Amino acid sequence: MDQDNGSHSLASLFTRLTQEVADLIRQEVALARAEVSEKIGQIETGVGSLAAGGMIILIGLFFLAEALVVGVAAVLQIWLDGVIAAWLAPLLVGLVIVIVGWALLAKGRSNLKARNLELRRTAGSLRRDEELVEEHVR
Predict the structure, then answer these.
(1) What is the tally of structural domains in the chain?
(2) For residues 110 and 57, what is the distance between their CA atoms, to the nearest angstrom?
(3) Nearest in space to 125 (alpha carbons), one of 8, 27, 16
(4) Mean pLDDT over residues 127-134, rounded?
(5) Are 112 and 46 in contact (CB under 8 A)?
(6) How many other CB atoms are found less than 10 A from the CB of residue 28?
(7) Which of 23, 24, 52 is nearest to 125 (CA)?
(8) Which domain holds residue 31?
(9) pTM
């Protein structure tokens, strides 16, 4: 009779363990879904900010570049012929603008790298759950 109770108790323990593992998996999936939704929101916000910022900067840069080209050409005419200053000024201004634009794009791309979008909380929680299960199995 004791042996039968022991096997019944063992069976109920396995049933309970199975239910708890299933609950744990459901909770982990829910956490992963929530974290993925959060990361998708970050991506959308990042891309939207990059696009809007890029357009606004581009419009402003058209006006600033035009004024800068005229100013640089006027300064260059002090030392150079007017024809040379006329093509060298836009070349220099354009080069500076390209460098600034490249730096902004590099920053935006860095924000969207995979390591910034990792599901860190889910991964940490899964590691803790794995350790907990290993402790209970021992």
Answers:
(1) 1
(2) 19
(3) 27
(4) 80
(5) yes
(6) 14
(7) 24
(8) 2-137
(9) 0.43
Residue at token pair 């058209």 = 62
Contact yes or no for 86/115 (Cβ under 8 A) = no
Res 84: pLDDT? 93
Instruction: Spell out the alpha helix ranges (H) of the chain.
Output: 2-79, 82-111, 120-137
* Helix, strand or coil, per DSSP, at residue 80: coil
> Between 82-111 and 2-79, two packed helices, what is the crossing angle to 10 degrees?
170
> Residue 2: its pLDDT value, please?
46
Tokens coding 87: 């093509």
What's the mean pLDDT in 93-118?
Answer: 84
On whether the CB atoms of residues 121 and 35 are closer than 8 A, the answer is yes
% of the chain surpassing 70 pLDDT: 90
Helix (H, G, I), strand (E, B) or coil at 117: helix
